[in-house]
Structures are given as structure tokens and as C-alpha cells.
Amino acid sequence: MSASHWTNLTLHLEESLTNALGHYLDNWRRNATAADNALDKTLAEENFRNVIWYLAVMIGMFAFIIVAMLVSTVKSKRTEHSNDPYHQYIKEDWTAQLQQGDVITNFAAI
């Protein structure tokens, strides 16, 4: 065998192995990509379902808190339940000041 024959054999063997390895890796990548795409699709659907539940719970909690605040504010503003001493003090203080006839309004005259 001559040296050129071995060179051709080496080049031919290198080309054959490179093609075989390239073909194997391409097939493996296609299979892995298909599996990854299927997994990503499943995870995206599951995550979307979880996001919807999360938003529903958060909006529900927010609505409950807002309604509770509104109800408590309206309930505390009713005059039927305003018999506490602090409210009576404020009410009497303001009405007493308005009823006084001899209130000095010009402080510079003092």
C-alpha cells in the first residue's frame, strides 16, 4: 500500500465518521427538541392555570378587604351609634361655641 492510499483511507474514514456522528446528533437533537417542546407546552398550560387561580384569589381577597372597610366606615358614621363620650364632647363643644354671643372675634382689640 502506498502513502497516498493511506491518506485517502484516512480522509474517507474521517468523512464517514463525521457524517455518521452528525446524522446521529441531528436525530438526537430533533428528539430532544420535540420532547422539550412538549414539556414546555405542558408547563405553560399548567402555569397559566395556576396564574388564573392566583389572580382570582388575590382579587377576591382585595375585594373582601375593601368591602369590609367600606362597611365598617358606613357603620361607624351612623348617628344611631354615636353615643360615645368622645363624640358627645365634640358635638357639645362645637355647638356651645356657636351659641356663645359674647365671643371676641377681633383679637387685636384686646
UniProtKB/TrEMBL annotation:
GO terms for cellular component: apical plasma membrane; voltage-gated potassium channel complex. InterPro entries: K_chnl_KCNE (IPR000369). One of its GO terms (molecular function) is potassium channel regulator activity. GO terms for biological process: potassium ion export across plasma membrane; regulation of heart rate by cardiac conduction; regulation of ventricular cardiac muscle cell membrane repolarization. Keywords: Cell membrane, Ion channel, Ion transport, Membrane, Potassium, Potassium channel, Potassium transport, Transmembrane, Transmembrane helix, Transport, Voltage-gated channel. It is a single-pass membrane protein; Single-pass type I membrane protein. The chain crosses the membrane at residues 51-71. It is found in: Apical cell membrane; Cell membrane. Belongs to the potassium channel KCNE family. This is Potassium voltage-gated channel subfamily E member 2.
